[in-house]
Amino acid sequence: MSEKVNQILEACLDAIDRGQDPEEILSQYPQDASAVRPLVEMAAATTKSFDVDIPPPPSGLTEGRQQLLDAAARKQKSSWTLNPLTRLFGEKRRQHMRFAFATKLISAILVAVVGTTAVGGGVAAAATNSLPGDTLYPVKLSIENTRLDLASSPTKQANLSLDFADERVEEIEALVEEDQPIPESSVTQLERHLHYALRQAAQMGDAELSGQLERVRQRTQTQIEALAALQAGTQERQRAQSQLHTAQQACERVREEAQAGLADPQTFRTRQQQREHMPDNVTPPESPENEPGNEQNQQPPDAPNGSQNQNQGGDGSGQHGSGEPDDASPGNQQGDRQRDQDQDQNQVHDPNQNAQPESDQQQDQQQGQQQDRQHQEDPAGNQQQKQQGESGGGQEDNDTVDPTPEGDSGQKRQGQQ
Amino acid sequence: MTSDRKLLRRARAYDQEALGELYDTYAARIYGYIYKRVQNAQIAENLTGDVFLRLLEAIQDEKAWRSSFTGWLYRIAHNLIVDHYRSEPPPSVRVDDLSLPGDDSIEETASDPFQKRQVRAALKQLTPDQQQVLALRFGEQMKSREVARILQKSVGAVEALQHRALNSLRRLLDEED
């Protein structure tokens, strides 16, 4: 009843906005008109009450502007000590940090110290602002993974994953603004973050599930709108259009899945469980294109066949950049190229891989990447490591960055060991 | 939206030009919004300045503004208004004390069942959430969907809040009679 009243009220308010008489709408709902009419009248009175002459601000808003700029200058000055580090690592692209262990090490240190030192915070901030192709971008992704690994409940993991999906969209926006190509891996990562959020939602109880799915629905809706707006502005750039369209479709699929989950939670859970056992639940990534910072001439000398080097990672998969000891594992040297490629692209960004105890991932482990994988992306593995004495600083950070109101249900992902 | 994001990226590095541009783009709108709520130009201007100072403090947390920068500004403004009223509660005025014509024209007074000042006084008796929904919906002329985005609620929740707020307002004003 109340919902219907709200709908009629909205229709009446829309009619008023269009300059029409709301009585025309009310006449279509004679049974509800008496309930809605007072609300319409009250809405009209409220609108009028806000219709006041706004006097000019006493200082013309200049004082507030100056205050803002002064405060910004003070903040900039206080962060001066960070600049050398920022210069060293950030801002300028085209320079690869080629050793993945360095990326991991830096991110782990940053996560540990970010809340305690200005320098750690500064580098972390610089990494957070980086884009695919930036030197610090792999650090950013690694920080994300570390945060995800440290998240203590499906809710926190799902929310973080949604945040990271937003981040991918924002990066895509920034790349479009800068006329940079959109890496395919950005789109793939976006989709994987969203699917991961869905999968974590499937582990929640009914009450929590509906809130989480609503969150997914809203967030994907915002992402769809952002991607659609970008497409409208890139009509002359066919390649970008295509990538944006793919990204938008991915978001739409997830939004529809969330909507379906809201309507039928049990079937949603079943579907998500089935997905977990599929070899790959999203479109397999294609070969990495040349991305900012991932140009052919920057391919490391030991790249297999020198082309489509899946290990390079200007988009962040460079955490496993060639030249790094663990990248020269038998897995990469002997394995199926496509599988390796998929794996490597997903390695940094795809928390879902953890929920895939079979097939590709298992084979990859047999090929000697288990240790690296656990460290990089397997929360279960990391959880184990954590229990074995990983620093508490990271956990502290996790609590800081993800203040999800929901309590820790104690559930953990069913990660592989 | 897109250009805002670009500005925001720069603003996060405390780029003065970007911050200045953001201020110039949004300050007047936020001032208007706050003025409609507090009805005092000096307070509205001070609070507008505070909105942007708070923006500066929180800009590193991009989770806060990522989905809607404008929405974030409105949320900050709303919180500051609530804080302001907490520290300086408005004089308690009974709605029926405002039955004399104030800024309502004679024609309006004659034709409308409620006067602006009465409605404004009644508005201040609503919950902060209800006030905010009505201020955005009818003061800023936003659609429910926009309000939902700003408040980070579902459209249904916003419409339900609006429904309750209008009913409460009606009740408050009817009590006067």
Question: What does this protein structure show overall?
Answer:
The complex is a heterodimer of chains A (417) and B (177). In chain A, 64% of the residues lie in helices and 0% in strands. Chain A has 18 helices and no strands. Residues 95-111 of chain B have low confidence and may be disordered. Chain B has helices at 2-12, 16-38, 41-58, 62-65, 69-87, 106-111, 116-123, 128-139, 144-151, 155-176. Chain B is built from ten helices and no strands. In chain B, α2 packs across α3 (41-58) and α9 (144-151) crosses α10 (155-176). Chain B is mainly α and 177 residues long. The chains are: A mainly alpha (417), B mainly alpha (177). Chains A and B meet through α1, α3, α4, α9 and α11 of A and α1, α2, α3, α7 and α8 of B.
Q: Evaluate the radius of gyration of chain B.
A: 18 Å
Radius of gyration of chain A: 25 Å
- Most extensive interface between two protein chains, with residue counts: A-B, 58 and 67 residues
Beta-strand percentage of chain B?
under 5%
Shape of chain B: globular
Report helical residue fraction of chain A: 55-70%
